[in-house]
Design goal:
Layout lengths: L23 H14 L7 E7 L5 E7 L2 E3 L2 E7 L3 H8 L2 E8 L4 E11 L2 H10 L2 H9 L9 H14 L11 E15 L7 E7 L5 E6 L2
Antiparallel strand pairs: 1-2, 1-5, 3-4, 4-7, 5-6, 6-7, 7-8, 8-9
Helix pairs in contact: 4-5
Length: 212
Amino acid sequence: MKIDAIRRNYTRDKLDMDKLTADPLVQFEHWLQDAVDAELPDPTAMCVASVDASGQPSQRLVLLKDLNPNGFVFYTNLGSKKATELAANPKVCLHFPWHPLERQVIVYGTAERVPSSQVMKYFLSRPKESQLAAWASEQSRPISTRQALLQKFAEIKHKFEHGDVTLPSFWGGFLVRPHQIEFWQGGEHRLHDRFMYSQQDDGSWSIDRLCP
């Protein structure tokens, strides 16, 4: 297999300055709606990049669960690798890869814990099996076998068999407040359209076209 010969041209769309909204979160919402309308698999999937104490970056895919004027929200086990890294270094990068639309969005920002009331509201909206899984999984920790995980899940399921699943103390969420957001639209002959929004001191956003 010659992977260096795998390529395709990007001709689906173009992105011009006059097509952009002044607020990147509004622009993102438009593009997210396009991804939903196109029935892309997991349109809210995003790569979250964090950095550990040694400077080693790590990435993982999670689902965006809220978009509001302050930024992007996701939920996780607070003992997980990403949560512990973000607690020590809140600088974070998000990446949305909408390949079928020849689009991607990169978000640069800082992460902060969301209020417990917001965490509770979202946790109670999850399917019961997902609530149980949150209790059963010590996310990012070694486990001997899958059977051991299933056994833990069965024990938790039995524990909450006759009542509501309570919110684990070790489960929470993060809000990523962006200070830069890049919108990328694939272009013919690798002449892609890239625009970077950068937040100014007064809260407004400047927009620069970047070379591809």
